[in-house]
Amino acid sequence: MPQAYIVDALRTPTGKRKGALAHVHAIDLGAHVLKALVARNAIPADEYDDVIFGCVDTIGSQAGDIARTSWLAAGLAMNVPGTTIDRQCGSSQQALHFAAQAVMSGTQDVIAVGGVQTMTQIPISSAMLAGQPLGFSDPFSGSKGWQARFGNQPVNQFYAAQRIADHWQLSRQQMEAYALESHRRALQAQADGRFAAQIVPCEGLVDDETPRHTSLAKMAELEPVSAEFPSITAAVSSQTCDASAALLVVSEAALKRYNLTPRARIHHVSVLGDDPIWHLTAPIAATRAALKKTGLRMDEIDVVEINEAFASVVMAWARELDYDPARTNPNGGAIALGHPLGASGARLMTSLLHQLEHSGGRYGLQTMCEGGGQANVTIIERL
């Protein structure tokens, strides 16, 4: 079977909500990483086969097929098409999967993959699906089919995060300790310069704005998001932010044609659905399914990047998979680095690749919970 390779991976810094990137048009934010990706690699822009971007809420500045418009705004070749996909929080991870599948099928050779989200300009509803914009009605209201199957059970990320905490007996204090460690790791990675190679400065912003010098005492002072969810506060939740990320995925033929050095081989791609009411637990079943499919064991996975939508999500996953916390999000996760919905999958893969190169590990696994009770899993092999 033809193989798909990652040649490059980069991202903007994560700009905190209303921070340094808040004023940047979403198209320009996407264009920034695409322009850098093309400039860094010896492939003429007009020889790219496609641009596949993830973006959640393709409205406002994110409307109009932002994969295509970002490529054009970057001043790149008009003959290159683009498509934008929405698998909720896993959108740009799914973009990577589609690119890998196109290469493995032999139908394409060079694909720019990534995602973009400007959450300052297009905020989401705190109670609905990850991609439900403020001011829009409940998407399930009035659906006879949905009501017949699920009744009035809440499809609510905070409800799900609290339900997971209760089921796995994770206290607020335990989750706050986890969150504090996420910030500590991210700040340490910044101090050690481990993000420098993956970040393309944007609008004068060189480092991620989101990691915080906080404490357990400060976290304990925060009010829960609602009385219904007593353990869920802003401290144990991912941060909204503005960011974009991009990767270059190519075939073996392209490696030879352009004399490129591959950094990783895409070993496995899969996606799995789970209970939409639990909403955030799908990474557990999806990881198990991926291991069964590949024949790998968790002790053979050197690094895991799992999206920190909430502390309870990652803590439950790690407990069920019996995986080393030290090798899970070793440079911090979305609690510290932010969760720019449509860009998060590409951001996590960028972090995963760079960490494998830093540590010398062989296999890395990425997964994340997604709206509707879904999860993608990607396994790469460092070369």
UniProtKB/TrEMBL annotation:
Annotated ranges, domain Thiolase C-terminal: 261-382
PANTHER family with a match to the protein in the record: ACETYL-COA C-ACYLTRANSFERASE, BLR7806 PROTEIN
Top-rank taxon, per record: Bacteria
SUPFAM superfamilies reported in the protein's UniProt record: Thiolase-like
Record field: transmembrane: none
Pfam families listed in its UniProt record: Thiolase_C, Thiolase_N
Any one GO MF annotation of this record: acetyl-CoA C-acetyltransferase activity
Primary enzyme class: transferase
Name of the protein in its database record: Acetyl-CoA acetyltransferase
NCBIfam families xref list: AcCoA-C-Actrans (TIGR01930), PRK07801.1 (NF005865)
UniProt-listed InterPro entries: Thiolase (IPR002155), Thiolase-like (IPR016039), Thiolase_C (IPR020617), Thiolase_CS (IPR020613), Thiolase_N (IPR020616)
Organism: Pseudomonas lundensis
Stated family: Belongs to the thiolase-like superfamily. Thiolase family.
Alphabetical keyword list: Acyltransferase, Transferase
EC number of the protein: 2.3.1.9
Limits of the Thiolase N-terminal domain: 5-252
